[in-house]
Amino acid sequence: MSKESSSTFLVTGASFGIGRAVTKALSARGFKVVAVARSEEQLESLATECAGQVQVVVADLATTVGVERVVASVATAADIAGIVHSAGSVISLQPYGELDSDELVEHLRIHVAAPIALYQSLAKTHSIKRMLFIDSYSATTNRVGWSAYSIVKAAAQMAARSAADELPETDTIRVFPGAVNTRIVDAVLESDTETAKVFAAIRDRGELAEPADTAAYIVALIADATDEMIRSQPTWDYNNPDDRQLLTERQQ
To answer: Does pTM top 0.85 for this prediction?
Structure first.
């Protein structure tokens, strides 16, 4: 049995953007993929695009019921080759003085608490070889008018760093995708912030990455890179030529 046909990956946030592209890329390689999202319509179209090779699960991971539904969908005997935590929410670009605490708590539930709950539930009955988190420069770089986004991303980053330090049986991978043509970037471009001008310039120069490009990078890390390579550095940056060269050499 080939590595592809015997390996199971779980991708959250599979309805849009990077998560959807990662699901399609893994499926095209012949991997078993459990694709999780809240949108039944988007998951159905994803299953059609992947010719029925993807197992889709409609679930809200911010709820206990949603987590339980995902855990129940993974075969008991299956070891999990990797989890790609791509589920997220479109966080309003609010300055500190205008933060809505209820909205902030809900975003933290999706970006921080949900991945923790999913891992803990799956780890009770499955071994999990790798776990990949989508990181952000905004976690450590304060941008005026971006308080809500940066607060959530900073908390998510610390959760991923804690996983890396405290889960010896699972290799944790943090990926910085940079500027990718997703709904989040659409929201930035529509905002009245200085960063909108920066992203517009990136777009106009043709430097805005497409989800499929970032997905290929993520799949190379979670499915192809050796354990030694994964453990050689704490983060991987799609925009760093050295990081991309390492993966290119691995795939040759």
So the answer is: yes
